[in-house]
Amino acid sequence: MSQPTTTTDRRIERRAAPPPVLRLKGIERHFREGAGRLSILDGAELAVAPGELVALAAPSGAGKSTLLHIAGLLEKPDKGEVLIDEVPVSVASDAERTAIRRMKIGFVYQFHHLLPEFSALENVMMPQLIRGLSKPEAARRAKELLSYMRLGDRIQHRPSELSGGEQQRVAIARAVANAPRLLLADEPTGNLDPTTAHYVFDALAALVRASGLAALIVTHNMELAERMDRRITLQAGKVVEL
Ligand SMILES: Nc1ncnc2c1ncn2[C@@H]1O[C@H](COP(=O)(O)OP(=O)(O)OP(=O)(O)O)[C@@H](O)[C@H]1O
Questions:
Q1: Which UniProt keywords apply (predicted)?
Q2: d(Cα 112, Cα 108) in Å, to the nearest integer?
Q3: What is the CB < 6 Å shell around ligand 1?
């Protein structure tokens, strides 16, 4: 597509920008520390657009996991608002938050947490079966995702029969099996050697961009962070662009 050339073109393009999938507004999270108060998040603001990969890098204890848990509706902020697809979730009941989480959010952790007694295919089918999809439907989507992750010839392997990089790619496929809108990842390649980390990241990034997911990824790997669309950190409880 050609670049916009007139003010009108630019205005149209700006108006057409899709709304963020994740928006955090004025998030505060405090913990009690002795007689005092430890402010971990203190007015954190963030927006992540569809198809965007945002790297979150900050020192240990800065509040990365806390931010991820709040964005993933696993934890409630003391103050502020989380919006998923522009819908505020603070007014939602616990049951509604769980439903939104199941439908709209996928998680990837440093350690894959795959079920050891099930095959790669069954692991990726699992969230879909829980959601109520039929076995053939779940299997079709799981095979498609595993092929996309270049694991088409490994679908019957159990996690213990897969390499670390393969296990993480299965975990990524599982995280997006229910076609979430938001992917939250906590050091998804932290347990892998550098070459494998890049390979797994390539697969994750391709999937995010192809499916228009919004992705917030905690990483200490600055080489990978450089390959994302934006890099943010946490300073004094606020989100700061790097
Ligand atoms: N439930 C809690 N009660 C008290 N303090 C807590 C609680 N949860 C987290 N904290 C504190 O909040 C701070 C931020 O924790 P968090 O796990 O978010 O940091 P992090 O940036 O993810 O660190 P790391 O990189 O080491 O995982 C830490 O000092 C932690 O001890």
A1: ATP-binding, Cell inner membrane, Cell membrane, Lipoprotein, Membrane, Nucleotide-binding, Translocase, Transport
A2: 7
A3: 31, 40, 58, 60-66
What is the spatial distance between Cα 105 and Cα 186, in angstroms, rounded to a whole number?
A: 13
pLDDT in tens, 29-87: 999 988 899 999 999 999 999 999 999 999 999 999 999 999 999 999 999 999 999 99
* pTM for the full predicted model: 0.90
CATH topology for 41-241 is Rossmann fold (3.40.50)
Please state the domain extents for the chain. Answer: 41-241
CA proximity to 141, closest of 162, 154, 127, 153:
127
Q: How many CB atoms lie within 10 A of CB 24?
A: 22
pLDDT for residue 2 is more than 50: no
Interval between CA 127 and ligand 1 midpoint (Å): 28
* Residue ID of nearest Cα to ligand 1 atom 17: 65
Cα of 60 from ligand 1 centre, angstroms: 8
Which atom number of ligand 1 is nearest to the Cα of residue 58? 21
Q: What angle do CA 99, 216, 118 make, to 5 degrees?
A: 60
Which residue type is seen at 10? R
Ligand 1 atom closest to Cα of residue 29: 12
CA distance 127 to 135: 11
- Cα(13) to ligand 1 centroid in Å equals 40
Packed helices 135-148 and 194-211: angle between N→C axes, nearest 10 degrees: 120
Task: For ligand 1, atom 26, name the residue with the nearest CA.
Answer: 60
Residue nearest ligand 1's atom 3 by CA: 31
